[in-house]
Write a structure and sequence with these properties.
Elements: E1 12-16, E2 20-24, E3 26-32, E4 36-41, E5 44-59, E6 64-77, H1 80-89
Antiparallel strand pairs: 1-2, 2-6, 3-4, 4-5, 5-6
């Protein structure tokens, strides 16, 4: 399991009329296809589901991801404190 590092940029999610999504505080993108994007953030794993998902910007150096799509749902799985605790146990 990957350690979640504190990014210098805070974690924010901005949705523009369910047609575009901007996320900051991104550590990694663990997978994506046209229906789902799995984004590991400083606040936990963010699952975005939609139609015709397209990652237009991905910069792990600055911790930013932009997705163009029709957003259907978003869900956080866990939080950074839980994942960091679990990663320490299984080292």
């Amino acid at each position: 399991m990957q350690d979640i590092q504190t990014n210098s940029q805070p974690h924010n999610v901005i949705i523009n009329q369910r047609q575009s999504l901007s996320v900051t505080g991104v550590v990694d993108v663990s997978g994506f296809d046209e229906q789902t994007v799995n984004i590991l953030t400083t606040e936990g794993n963010l699952i975005v589901k939609g139609e015709s998902l397209h990652i237009s910007t991905l910069s792990l150096d600055t911790g930013q991801v932009s997705v163009d799509c029709r957003i259907i749902s978003m869900q956080y799985l866990g939080d950074s404190k839980q994942q960091s605790f679990m990663s320490r146990i299984f080292r």
